[in-house]
């Protein structure tokens, strides 16, 4: 070994040791009684959902954890269930989920049980719930700051720091604005979930927890970047959680795990005081939103948060209280359908799921038209440029803190070293192109009013979240189906449709790929998992 | 003369000739009958408002042009006044105003009269107005594109082009989104008003029309950058017009000319399709808003525009219909009062105006508290950085098209040559600082709820627009009173209060200036003009 190699090797063992210590310290917070005697290999036990995980839970724990957020709140608010038993059941199931999929970054079950006990005491004394989310466990992506625990965002260099800085005075005490609001609503916070370091990948992988596996098929990705949320809620170790989305990071894990996921437009929910990558990049903003097992849960959480008037505490949130759109509920609706964006053809089960949705819409008395918008490639190229405006400066600074290796899924976008940054003029030019693209898309949307017969343009459009039901590790090579929504900044909701069926969803062996990207996506075609579709809101900027 | 000097001299005469040709061509559009036989010098005739300008108008023209926008619309909508006579009266008065103050960049009286005649024909046939602004003349800052006329934004190099580009196909036919909306509401467009080249000054000066003088005192500035609007509406050559504001450009000319001016928050009114400087710079956005002779006129225009659902055509406009805030009208209100920002002491008449406002508030049964927010200097330094993110690249490109000389008021910010641009990382860091400053200010505002006794925080705060009643040419050296609102992005309205009174508003000869900037502002103290105050909205982001 020459000197350089020795130094590198020493540094490597340092960050590996730091990562291992952190991993061990988190895992040590799982009570002995909740530890699995052994973890089956992915090949031996692909699917760990349902019956498989139930074997480790009591009947009462299963009943509680199979209930959605609305059902939980109705029971805790009436006193039928104690906040503490709910917190304990979800903590137990989350602990199991983590052992099976690597979905947690931080565990604070003890604080949650104390908080739940305090709520039970409050309820016993006042005979009323503490707030609209009384006793509801809520999981959080590891960008939220919560007192008593760290935020690493998957970076080894952030261990023991506040967002990579030491001695800021914020360590272990600072809380993000939404955390304050959730507590004030009565939510019980008990764990933070895993992310890919940088947040900029559709898979979840980092040097602290490794790879977050899909609980329905542990050979596949749980999605990313809110992949820990996806796996955890997919395994019902949480009824509802919050992720963030700058390119699909709420929708992808929601889709891959058969969940409902809401990506609101920017400025709707409070991001204030959260850790982030490229903080201050404001050409395309990351937004925060919920993932859950039912649509009603999404509504409960968003409506509750807006009741806190977040615009008084987060300067980027608009003063927009919850708006009911029930005036549309009696109308005939028209949906635009985009089955294929022309770049990468979705896999057969995704196409089949779209067809199922079209049938369902028609059966319900609504109508569909083909969605033929301006080229999505023009929009997705812009958003790809925006992700690297700083040439990777920010994320490489975070990597350099520890010298850790960079996951291939992240290096695909940011390389091994930073490159030249974009200038103010170049950024302004991109912002103008974005605005012009948004305007063109809006004009297309307006133009559909002549085709619907309702006097309104299309009420919403529907398209896949990804070209596949779930990604195979390192084979997520095309994000156009999700990133297009980030450049447009439309509110969007992911809705699960069906499961893949090996007997129906046959791959077309004679398919001629359109291009290199399409070819790789086609080759990754495997009969897999849940299917989900991206469902856009009923009116532009008006889904809430 | 050496070769270089000869070349420079030839280039100079070329741009001077182009500017003169443009100026002459605009002036030639003033009908012979409306030309003043001679223009009095500023020293001979400082004040050209009221009685002075009336001498050139008929009694009917005076009656029409002294009526505010609401009064005009009520008469045109009932058929009491013809759209054509209204258009003609304002065209005449605008022509006079231009000759006295240099307030116009484009004249299209003929198109306006044709449009007004068509509206009269429509009214005669259908017995109803064409829209809520039937027959209302509306003036536009020279950033709006209107078919049939150019947009130079004061740049000699933009003459004969579309935003500096030749052969774009947009020349003389493209219209900005708000122009389309105003036409569809029934407004009559008849002139575009002067701006400082670049738009980045509180005075209005360029090589095409020269300097826009204050009609109340033609030795003083009409303000900027919507200075043409200020002078024109101040002289009642327009009942209402639209300006833009990135640092005070609606509020300053409104204040210097005794007008009401509304600077909404970003995303409220459509900027789509307008010319701009540094287009795509999105750290602090320029916003568009009305200036008028009454508060009711501002409301009429904004409410009418929002009825057009601009969010369906401008991707930066939020889906926010007009909101009535009449629920506050019966309450006791609390106003924060900031008389002096601690950097530059306002001149005596400005202080007196604030005191008058405080008295009026108390007499009306409301209350005031001292407004002691986080340091304004911290905020105004950020916005000063944001104006030059591109190092002047954009504005110098526009200057280079013709080689024209740069006005001193503009060179003060952008120098004679561009400098290095800021990088993506630096811009992101500034955006984070801005957000943190906004949050700190919001927290201060929230904190006042303990001091009001109403259960609400302060409903609005009041401060000067500028340290003086109107600026003396080249002596506008401190913008902190207006730019602070742009970094905060609060909706704000300028309200005229009183006139300077030489007998009362004595300068303090013993004043010890606090700093160099304060000293220059103090030295410029002269008993001058209108006084106006910046009146912030009744609730944050909720003035409309």
From TrEMBL, chains A, B:
Domain of life: Eukaryota
Pfam families: Amidase
UniProt xrefs under InterPro entries: Amidase_CS, Amidase_dom, AS_sf
Transmembrane feature ranges: none
UniProt: substrate binding residues: 199, 225, 246-249
Residues annotated as domain Amidase: 85-511
EC number: 3.5.1.4
Record's keyword terms, sorted: Hydrolase
Family membership noted in the UniProt record: Belongs to the amidase family.
Protein name: amidase
Organism whose genome encodes this protein: Talaromyces stipitatus (strain ATCC 10500 / CBS 375.48 / QM 6759 / NRRL 1006)
Organism lineage: Eukaryota, Fungi, Dikarya, Ascomycota, Pezizomycotina
């Amino acid at each position: 070994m020459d000197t350089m190699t020795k130094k590198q090797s020493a540094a490597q063992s340092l960050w590996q040791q730091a990562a291992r210590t952190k991993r061990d310290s988190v895992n040590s917070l799982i009570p002995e009684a909740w530890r699995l005697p052994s973890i089956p290999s992915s090949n031996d036990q692909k699917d760990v959902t349902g019956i498989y995980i139930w074997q480790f839970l009591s009947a009462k724990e299963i009943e509680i954890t199979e209930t959605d957020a609305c059902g939980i709140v109705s029971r805790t608010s009436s006193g039928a269930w104690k906040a503490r038993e709910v917190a304990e059941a979800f903590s137990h199931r989350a602990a199991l989920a983590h052992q099976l999929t690597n979905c947690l970054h931080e565990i604070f079950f003890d604080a949650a049980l104390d908080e739940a006990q305090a709520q039970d005491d409050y309820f016993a004394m006042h005979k009323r719930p503490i707030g609209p989310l009384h006793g509801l466990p809520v999981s959080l992506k590891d960008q939220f700051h919560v007192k008593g625990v760290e935020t690493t965002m998957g970076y080894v260099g952030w261990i023991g720091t506040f967002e990579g800085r030491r001695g800021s005075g914020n360590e272990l005490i600072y809380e993000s604005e939404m955390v304050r609001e959730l507590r004030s609503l009565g939510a019980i916070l008990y764990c933070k979930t895993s992310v890919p370091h940088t947040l900029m990948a559709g898979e979840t992988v980092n040097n602290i927890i490794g790879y977050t596996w899909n609980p329905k098929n542990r050979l596949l990705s749980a999605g990313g970047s809110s992949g820990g949320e996806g796996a955890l809620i997919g395994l019902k170790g949480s009824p509802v959680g919050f992720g963030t989305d700058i390119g699909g990071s709420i929708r992808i894990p929601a889709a891959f795990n058969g969940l409902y996921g809401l990506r609101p437009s920017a400025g709707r929910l409070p991001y204030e005081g959260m850790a982030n990558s490229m903080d201050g990049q404001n050409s395309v903003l990351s937004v925060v939103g919920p993932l859950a097992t039912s649509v009603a849960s999404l509504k409960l959480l968003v409506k509750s948060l807006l009741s806190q008037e977040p615009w008084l505490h987060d300067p980027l949130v608009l003063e927009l209280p919850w708006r009911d759109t029930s005036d549309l509920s009696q109308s005939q609706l028209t949906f635009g359908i985009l089955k294929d964006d022309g770049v990468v053809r979705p896999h057969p089960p995704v196409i089949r799921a779209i067809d199922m949705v079209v049938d369902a819409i028609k059966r319900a008395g609504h109508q569909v038209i083909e969605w033929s918008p301006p080229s999505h490639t023009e929009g997705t190229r812009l958003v790809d440029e925006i992700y690297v405006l700083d040439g990777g400066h920010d994320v490489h600074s975070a990597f350099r803190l520890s010298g850790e290796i960079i996951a291939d899924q992240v290096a695909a976008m940011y390389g091994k070293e930073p490159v030249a940054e974009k200038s103010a003029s170049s950024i302004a030019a991109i912002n103008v192109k974005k605005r012009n693209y948004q305007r063109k898309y809006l004009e297309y949307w307006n133009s559909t009013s002549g085709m619907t017969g309702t006097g309104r343009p299309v009420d919403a459009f529907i398209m896949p979240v990804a070209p596949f039901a779930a990604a195979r590790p390192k084979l997520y090579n095309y994000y156009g189906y999700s990133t297009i929504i980030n450049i447009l900044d439309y509110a969007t909701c992911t809705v699960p449709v069906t499961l893949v069926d090996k007997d129906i969803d046959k791959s077309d062996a004679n398919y001629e790929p359109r291009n290199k990207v399409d070819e790789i996506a086609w080759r990754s075609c495997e009969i897999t998992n849940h299917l989900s579709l991206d469902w856009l809101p009923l009116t532009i900027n008006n889904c809430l």
